[in-house]
Sequence to fold (504 residues):
Amino acid sequence: MNAPEPLATRAPRWRDLPLLHRLGPAFGTRLPPTPLPGVHWVARSEALAVELGLTDWLHSNDALALLAGNVQPTGSAPITTMASVYSGHQFGSWAGQLGDGRALLLGEIDSPAGALEVQLKGAGLTPYSRMGDGRAVLRSSIREFLCSEAMHALGIPTTRALAIVGSPAPVRRETVETAAVVTRLAPSFIRFGHFEHFAHTASDTTALRALTDAVIDHFYPACRDAPQPVLALLEAVSRRTATLMADWQAVGFCHGVMNTDNMSILGLTIDYGPFGFLDAFDPGHICNHTDNQGRYAFARQPSVAFWNLHALAHGLMPLLDPADGDPAEALKAAMAPYKAMFAEAMQARLRAKLGLATAQDSDTDLIDDLLRLMAQDRCDYTITLRALGRFSTAAGADNAAVRDWFVDRAAFDAWGARYAARLQAEGSVDADRRARMDRINPKFVLRNHLAETAIQQARAGDFSEVQRLLQVLQSPFDEHPQAPAAYAALPPDWSTHLEVSCSS
Ligand code: AMP
Ligand code: MG
Fold:
């Protein structure tokens, strides 16, 4: 008998029939990726490879060929890769049919955390490419790769990224760039838009019902036992989306393109495009250069998510039997917990960011007043909150480490006196509080200029900065004394002119 292959050297174990394949041909088109010439590694997430037991494999030529889309995966038989079809609302308007225009589902692999779908983004034309070329450029691939892994390390639900493969193949955007393929993983890439698609385009509810049943069975099994599983699903998705929005707002993450086709049914952060982390705190911050109206401005994200849940609810409506009660009212009731859930999750995160161990009614004012001061003085969101961990409650402490980030020092001192009193009232110990705060207020986030520097060097053929940045972003709460000072500093002047758009 052969000895079992050691975990670290084995190749991915492909499941024979990924979920979307099992659902049937209405859900997409089976087709192979389009090969890319001259492929090479750009970056790999060793941390994810360890989790998957794929460390050695990820350094093999087999892996390079597979993750470039140059060979097909093989399970007990060759697996047919597929692009899935979905629709969605973009910038508030019905956009009709969309779909994986440049993403291909390679298949599903087993992982210690359960089955994971593996997607190649940028793997060539599909029937859903519309006017696009099916490719992704190196620039946007580096941004998606780094941010996926950074969000995961921040404790925020997200699709993961295993690797980027680059190629000299030219890709035309505003200028001619080069192609890259990102390998993304998630339990599922199913979006709100998948439900909207079958609700709006199918002549009956067969496909919509099959999709909903599969999502419930695989990802929300507790909903199966509810009197109306569809309503239970909507409520569960609403709750996950509410906590995701609290996660984004608490860390200062702006997604940039919260169209319903970019909303995960699992409550994951998905489709990294023109995202940004707040530098100077501005609730109205718009990170997507093409979002002229500011529909997806930072402070609007929680209400946009709720709007998107309404679109999902509309998509689920055909599955409800009016004999069980008014479907519109029932769907509204299922989403109703969203607002309280978001508010509660947000308060919990902000309390923790201030190091408050207990909850008091007056905390809302204390938190709001700090955020107001930070917005008024355009304090750097990440740096200021990290510095607040160094706040001392000792009598006469000057607290320069945090105070100096404010313009209106007197206003900060007045707030600081209230904060100190509040901390003392709960018997807070400064050193313990700082340790707690340092585990929730990251020192490092993927600021645009950091990504930009890594991209510029990668374009010149040096991928080491991508890997260096990744390593720090994968433990963003640690001090990393050896890391370049710029990683945790205010953004440089040149970065205020960076414009990030949907072009990717
Ligand atoms: P996004 O704004 O990146 O979420 O993309 C919206 C839709 O356009 C999705 O269906 C994408 O698959 C598709 N898409 C974006 N870029 C391309 C491209 N270069 N080629 C083909 N399809 C694309
Ligand atoms: Mg998308």
